[in-house]
From TrEMBL:
<protein>
    <submittedName>
        <fullName>HK97 family phage prohead protease</fullName>
    </submittedName>
</protein>
<dbReference type="Pfam" id="PF04586">
    <property type="entry name" value="Peptidase_S78"/>
</dbReference>
<keyword id="KW-0645">Protease</keyword>
<keyword id="KW-1188">Viral release from host cell</keyword>
<dbReference type="GO" id="GO:0006508">
    <property type="term" value="P:proteolysis"/>
</dbReference>
<dbReference type="InterPro" id="IPR054613">
    <property type="entry name" value="Peptidase_S78_dom"/>
</dbReference>
<keyword id="KW-0378">Hydrolase</keyword>
<feature type="domain" description="Prohead serine protease">
    <location>
        <begin position="18"/>
        <end position="153"/>
    </location>
</feature>
<dbReference type="GO" id="GO:0008233">
    <property type="term" value="F:peptidase activity"/>
</dbReference>
<dbReference type="InterPro" id="IPR006433">
    <property type="entry name" value="Prohead_protease"/>
</dbReference>
Amino acid sequence: MELEHKFVRIGGEVALREGHVIEGYASLFGLPDQGGDTVLAGAYGASLRALSAKGGKVKMLWQHDPAQPIGVWDEVREDGRGLWVKGRLLPEVARAREAAALIGAGAIDGLSIGYRTKKAQGGKGGRLLSELELWEVSLVTFPMLPEARVGRKAERDTDGDALMRDLAAAFEGARGALTGA
């Protein structure tokens, strides 16, 4: 099974606090993303329990780059709405300071999960995802699930935003084809 990514904008009630604390939903249950996949409630439970049992943590990365960890997720849990995360950008890491500035300015407003599908119904572009092995949650530029947003509550889901998300998905697909991922 290959590593997959799902993008979501950080929830509207999410803010950058104390210059480095981030909290909000990295995934929302029951809402199809722009690829047509829907994460079902409970999809992360087994993965989170397995990570906890071995003392592991979900990684916080910049743009899904495993060479660029930018902080730590102190809490990752499911609730009735989705996958909630709370973590800290590490001010000692240059990219984390940049991420904090970009979030504060509203230039970055997305979260994306990196995972492997364990159980799903349906085919590509329309799956019901019932069990996922969660690897990481990244701060990203272009999210796929427009229902959640970062700190600013202004309306941002314009046709231009949709076009940019479509372009980002196309670039991600091309990158995957080139790297064999």
